[in-house]
Amino acid sequence: MYALLFAEPVLDRDVVRVGTREGIFSSPLIRACAHGDREAIRALLIGFWPFVQAFERAIDQRVGHLPLRPLVERFGQSRVKTFFSEARDAVREMKEEEGSHALLWVAGAKELGIDLNTDHYPQLSSIENLIQASTSEDPVEFFSWLAGVEYLAEELSAYLCHAPAFTRAFPSGRWIWGEAHNAHDHHGPSHLEIDEDLARAYHPSNDPEIVGATMTANIRRCIQLFDRAATQIQDTLAQSEKVS
């Protein structure tokens, strides 16, 4: 089981969640989904799929390739040996879980008659920006980014899974991808806690304020890019409706 390196979080998670929630609630696309607009739901599932798929691959590529030297210099050889074994297991678990989550996204789309292999939008610049940001070689940025995506997934799921008009759009009456992100049945630290712990461990500063500022900036950028992507997907949907 992964043991956190830091006893107290460097971020106020409630504050981060409020900021994340505000972005989600203010999105016309997400609000339309919550109101049961089937075309908006279709746009959400198709539009964000390239990122959902690429995010799984980004975690896969990171497994087994975490840099060792910064941690040895900071925590010492003995502690890092145990840390690294647990950290790799934690990241591997994230990869496996994101892989299953990607399958749940596909399954939800299939319920609505969407084939994500053939149903897609033209390449959207905002989605490409999300994908590029998730492949950072900087472990501080990478794990901050994972934390940002986790905040987004949890808040998006909490909003839509509690919107009856949205869940009724699915024949099963459930959005299984969202339910998976609403479930908190991990043994030990959550993935969000592990993401933040690793980002902090790799940061060169020991000053919590400096570390917190860096992680907050990375997470905010993640949320902002998500908001821009939702807006571009909404604009693409509006344009397609005009053409039809």
From TrEMBL:
InterPro entries: Haem_Oase-like_multi-hlx. This is Thiaminase-2/PQQC domain-containing protein. SUPFAM superfamilies: Heme oxygenase-like (SSF48613). It comes from Acetobacter aceti. It comes from the Bacteria.
